[in-house]
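step 3/5: co-fold with zinc ion
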Amino acid sequence: MPARPSARVRKSPAQPAAPKLKIHVLRCGKTGVDPAVLDRDISRNPLAYTGLFRPMSNRIWLPVRAYLIEHPKGRVLINTGWNPEVRNRPLYTLGPMLYCATPYLPVGESIRERLRALDLSPDMLDLVLLTHLESDAAGGLCEVRKAKKIAVHRDEWIAANALIPRYNVNSNNWQGIRVRTFTFPEPALGGQPETPYRDVFGDGSVCVVPLAGRTPGMVGVRVTWGGKFVLIVGDAAYFEDNWNLLTLPGPSFDVLDSALTLDYIRTQSKDPNCLCILASHDPAVQPDLIELGLRANFFYSGNRTNRVDPADKE
Ligand SMILES: [Zn+2]
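step 4/5: write tokens
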């Protein structure tokens, strides 16, 4: 006689939820620049990207991004957007750089305001990593000075503090703030040439990679989770053409390094496990939340290409 089906359903033991890794793409205002910033070949004037002697009506408005990584082991903020003082005293805050990049920072979009909207305070950040030290990346440092650690590559720190004219930054952005520097380990002698990196949590999930060229010590971050990865490239590239067609951005500190970096980004973008390349000023990158699940069942509500935030079209 066949056994009667039991009315009781055997429950499998409760499985702990797979940890997720989140990347918040935060819009922190905009920057108005000459189109030659994106592509140096659109003008024969090698200094066209500075905007000097070029019509202001030419300027295009690009979003300024910061990124917050929420990892099970800690929070990492990448870049800090503009100093909120640009709202009231732009020339005092930016100095001569004001002529190269016009700031726009509406209320609610400074980095502290963005964090507050996520119920976070600066002391809850384990690391603030600056991809470089230009004012739309390091300007908001004054708002996150209470983070547990603030770091930038040593080459960037040295160049920015030497105040060389080719690298126009405002050192007031980090006055009185403790910024630590790091370098990359040399590739092992005799071994395969590998991209050196710094592993933030010691598990390979958040790795800082060198992307020098556009500025002397530019870095990016490769976030790997569940076998997929996202590459945050800061200002090493502005939009897809920079890495797909290897067109150089206008303000390249070292053209050869910049080309090598773009080639690296292109190689990464072709990797089938690459979910997206996030460039700080790419209009195709929307303010968004990217969630990576442990079993590669990622959820990304954005799109890899050509999605323009309506708010960025103004
Ligand atoms: Zn920038």
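step 5/5: annotate
Confidence is low (pLDDT under 50) at residues 294-314.
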